[in-house]
């Protein structure tokens, strides 16, 4: 669980397990993601910044991701709603840029 206003840096779920999230409020939560196929770009961006993706804390710059051609998806979910990102309906995602 996280306290309101907290943020989680970019990460891959432990052992590549699917994640399930719940927003317990107050208010809506915002979540961003990009397809796994773009991992190579993310890894390169980390290397260029001397960051270890698995051990460090990477906060990718939104504009940098877009300029690299990485599609970024934004999802907003309301209080007391479960979210299983790997099974979310495409209509639930807002494609920010492709």
TrEMBL record:
Keywords: Nucleus. Residues 4-76 form the JmjC domain. It holds the Pfam family JmjC. InterPro entries: Corepressor-Demethylase, JmjC_dom. GO terms for biological process: regulation of gene expression. One of its GO terms (molecular function) is histone H3K27me2/H3K27me3 demethylase activity. It is found in: Nucleus. The keyword NAD does not apply. GO terms for cellular component: MLL3/4 complex. Its main location: nucleus. It comes from Cylicostephanus goldi. It comes from the Eukaryota. The keyword Nucleus applies. This is JmjC domain-containing protein.
């Amino acid at each position: 669980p996280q306290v309101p206003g907290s943020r989680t840096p970019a990460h891959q779920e432990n052992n590549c397990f699917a994640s399930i999230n719940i927003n317990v409020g107050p208010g809506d939560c915002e979540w961003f993601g990009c397809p796994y196929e773009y991992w190579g770009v993310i890894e390169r961006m980390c290397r260029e910044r001397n960051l270890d993706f698995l051990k460090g804390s990477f906060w990718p710059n939104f504009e940098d991701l877009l300029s690299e051609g990485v599609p970024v998806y934004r999802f907003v979910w309301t209080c007391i709603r479960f979210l299983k990102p790997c099974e979310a309906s495409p209509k639930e995602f807002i494609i920010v840029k492709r």
